[in-house]
Amino acid sequence: MSVDLLCVNPADVKEVWPLASGLIRAAIERTDLSAFEDVEKDVLAGDQLLWLAISDHVEAAATTHLARNVCTLVACSGHQRERWLPLFARIEKYAKDEGCKAMRIYGRPGWERVLDGYRREYVILEKAL
After folding, report:
1. 39, 102, 122, 129: which sits with the fewest CB atoms below 10 Å from its CB?
2. DSSP assignment string, the chain
3. What is the per-residue pLDDT for 125?
4. pLDDT of res. 53
């Protein structure tokens, strides 16, 4: 069965959110770069877009935010990554069509190994106090 990418219309996101929220929460908890409640609020308000990789079920979910000519992938999680990873090209096309000059991904360093053309631009340093 093939997998397809769906950008959820912000007007419909409240109905679909229960299918994706667990995946988004898992992505956020792995990195702790965002607060789930903030991402959820932004998605439900239409300030971030919700993307779903779907077949007969939701295989992956992601959120994006556009600001200052940059499309940021805020959270992404799913199963069988090799099935839906090629769909990233469609998010990149969307960003380019919206006038973005770059894509950014907030996540684990491992994304750099599996996404063609992406490189580490910045690092986040942290010290426990």
Report:
1. 129
2. ---EEEEPPGGGHHHHHHHHHHHHHHHHHHH-SS-HHHHHHHHHHTSSEEEEEESSSEEEEEEEEEETTEEEEEEEEES-HHHHGGGHHHHHHHHHHTT-SEEEE-S-TTHHHHSTT------------
3. 58
4. 98
pLDDT of residue 62: 97
Retrieve residue 41's tokens. Answer: 């609020």
Neighbours of 52 (CB within 10 A): 23
Pairing of strands 70-78, 102-105: parallel
Token pair in block for residue 80: 């069988």
- CA 26 to the chain's CA centroid: 12
How many angstroms separate the CA atoms of 106 and 65, rounded? 11
Q: Averaged over 47-70, what is the pLDDT?
A: 96
Tens of pLDDT, residue by residue over 84-110, are: 999 999 999 999 999 999 998 877 777
Within a 10 A sphere around the Cβ of 26, how many other Cβ atoms? 15
How far is the C-alpha of 45 from the C-alpha of 14, rounded, in Å? Answer: 9
